[in-house]
């Protein structure tokens, strides 16, 4: 269709640090809306508040978005037809549009000093009025303005809002929202150093970059009517607005740094997979049609739609994130997991092993702990016992139920004798299990009395993969060695333990 409007959405972060989970959700929803309508997704850096800027934040943002897998079609790192994509490099553009707005009577210069404003606010509060700019400079004549400028008085530019009546603005999720104009303040669009505020630069750029849909957090709802009035003053078409509901913690409060991790980088460092994070985030405010919980990015791109989105706040539930992470970890092949885990594995096998032997060994371990990995970083605590000669265990731990130390030692010795009968060639989990369980059954022994001490002798842990899985990975020699060590240790224990 010829005149169909292009779909263009943008992520417009301020480079103030790491990527907040809330911003990831905003980014994801913007990306998915764009892709579900075959549109473009743009990165624009909103750095007009230089005081809040953190050095390196833009690079780290691009890096983490790459890791997450959301690709931009335009942005400061890849260019595009609407460059530059960093607001601090667009100051001339803003100057031009400031003059245009002044000429259209949509704004006015204000010469009130910081002291004037403080005094004004105090008087208003004393009178129990809401503190806001009293519009003093709105009434200056052209001659007065020129004179003040000629005298070198610093000034800001304020938006000239209608004085009374109502404005109805439209949000795609909430429908029409009514605001009383008497509640709005002529806020600052251009600061005294000539740099625009968010409210000006954001609207000018969305217009110039042909943004068709704006997704942003609902903390921007109070400024929404002012944004729309600015579009009207310029005579520009208004994009569709989608204000995303807040993400709350489990107790109903705001997601805050004090209660836990709130940045995507922290979750990456903790061993969460990007697939799990976006799957988790997409369900914070969107319900897929088929109630399907596990969705790949491609499925999301195909299924995402406005009508599945709601306005009630979403709850950040870390248990769910852990669940998704587990699902995606288990969906990986052992080789894929090896590549992800190797850099995190402290004990990357023994020095005598070649790289290839090392990988072979690690690949044997992975299937035994895959089910237990909640995050990639669990790898060290889950696999320490696979490395080194000796295993430390608590003396009490190795004793199963009412078994004495003496009985435990005897049982381990019996197991040793049986295991020694198994050759190197047959030494793998399935054969070990079949043979040893068969032996326990035919000799009418209680499974727990033998397999518990065997597992503790091999791992030193209360919970671990089963004894035959572990023995299969450790190999014949090391398994027998650990059993022998355990027997020797128990011999030194008092029999009344
Ligand atoms: N720079 C704003 C922020 O970081 C962008 C909000 C918007 O998307 O309009 O919150």
UniProtKB/TrEMBL annotation:
Q: CDD domains from the xrefs?
A: GluRS_core
What is a GO molecular function of this protein? glutamate-tRNA ligase activity
Q: Which UniProt keywords apply?
A: Aminoacyl-tRNA synthetase, ATP-binding, Cytoplasm, Ligase, Metal-binding, Nucleotide-binding, Protein biosynthesis, Zinc
Q: What class of enzyme is it?
A: ligase
Which reaction equations make up its catalytic activity? tRNA(Glu) + L-glutamate + ATP = L-glutamyl-tRNA(Glu) + AMP + diphosphate
Q: Where is this motif: 'KMSKS' region?
A: 254-258
Residue span(s) of domain Glutamyl/glutaminyl-tRNA synthetase class Ib catalytic: 6-322
* Domain Aminoacyl-tRNA synthetase class I anticodon-binding: from-to ranges: 336-486
Q: What is this enzyme's EC?
A: 6.1.1.17
Q: Tell me the residue numbers annotated for binding ATP.
A: 257
Give the HAMAP family listed for this entry: Glu_tRNA_synth_type1
Subunit-structure text = Monomer.
Output the NCBIfam families linked to this UniProt entry. Answer: gltX_bact
Record's protein name: Glutamate--tRNA ligase
Provenance organism: Candidatus Falkowbacteria bacterium CG10_big_fil_rev_8_21_14_0_10_37_14
Q: What is the lineage of its organism?
A: Bacteria, Candidatus Falkowiibacteriota
């Amino acid at each position: 269709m010829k005149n169909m409007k292009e779909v263009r959405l943008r992520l417009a972060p301020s480079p103030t640090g790491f990527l907040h989970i809330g911003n990831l959700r905003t980014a994801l929803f913007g990306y998915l809306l764009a892709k579900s309508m075959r549109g473009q997704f743009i990165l624009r850096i909103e750095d007009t508040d230089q005081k809040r800027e953190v050095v390196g934040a833009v690079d780290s943002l691009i890096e983490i978005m790459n890791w997450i897998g959301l690709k931009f079609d335009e942005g400061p790192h890849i260019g595009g037809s609407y460059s530059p994509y960093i607001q601090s490099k667009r100051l001339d553009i803003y100057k031009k549009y400031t003059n245009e707005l002044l000429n259209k009577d949509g704004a006015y210069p204000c010469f009130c000093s910081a002291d004037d404003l403080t005094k004004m606010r105090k008087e208003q509060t004393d009178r129990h009025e809401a503190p806001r700019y009293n519009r003093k400079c709105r009434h200056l004549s052209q001659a007065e303005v020129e004179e003040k400028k000629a005298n070198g008085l610093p000034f800001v530019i304020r938006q000239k809002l209608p004085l009374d009546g109502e404005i109805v603005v439209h949000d795609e999720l909430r429908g029409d929202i009514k605001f009383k104009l008497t509640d709005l303040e002529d806020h600052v669009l251009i600061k005294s150093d000539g740099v625009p505020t968010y409210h000006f630069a954001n609207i000018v750029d969305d217009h110039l970059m042909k943004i068709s849909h704006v997704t942003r957090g609902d903390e921007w709802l109070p400024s929404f009517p002012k944004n729309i009035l600015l579009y009207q003053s310029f005579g520009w078409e208004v994009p569709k607005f989608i204000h995303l509901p807040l993400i709350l913690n489990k107790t109903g409060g705001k997601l805050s740094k004090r209660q836990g991790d709130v940045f995507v980088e922290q979750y990456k460092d903790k061993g969460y997979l990007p697939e799990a994070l976006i799957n988790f985030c997409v369900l914070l405010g969107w319900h897929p049609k088929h109630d399907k919980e596990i969705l790949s990015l491609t499925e999301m791109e195909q299924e995402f739609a406005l009508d599945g989105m709601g306005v009630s706040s979403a709850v950040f539930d870390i248990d769910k994130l852990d669940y998704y992470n587990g699902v995606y970890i288990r969906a990986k092949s052992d080789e894929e997991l090896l590549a992800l885990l190797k850099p995190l594995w402290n004990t990357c096998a023994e020095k005598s092993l070649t790289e290839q032997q090392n990988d072979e060994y690690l690949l044997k371990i992975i299937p035994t702990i895959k089910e237990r990995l909640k995050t990639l970083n669990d790898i060290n605590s889950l696999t320490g016992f696979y490395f080194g000669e000796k295993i430390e265990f608590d003396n009490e731990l190795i004793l199963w139920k009412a078994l004495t130390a003496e009985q435990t030692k005897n049982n381990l010795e019996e197991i040793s004798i049986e295991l020694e009968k198994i050759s190197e060639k047959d030494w793998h989990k399935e054969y070990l299990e079949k043979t040893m369980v068969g032996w326990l059954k035919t000799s009418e022994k209680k499974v727990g009395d033998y397999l518990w001490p065997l597992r503790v002798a091999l791992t030193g842990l209360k919970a671990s993969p089963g004894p035959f899985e572990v023995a299969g990975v450790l190999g014949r020699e090391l398994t027998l060695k650990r059993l022998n060590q355990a027997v020797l240790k128990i011999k030194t224990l008092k029999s009344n333990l």
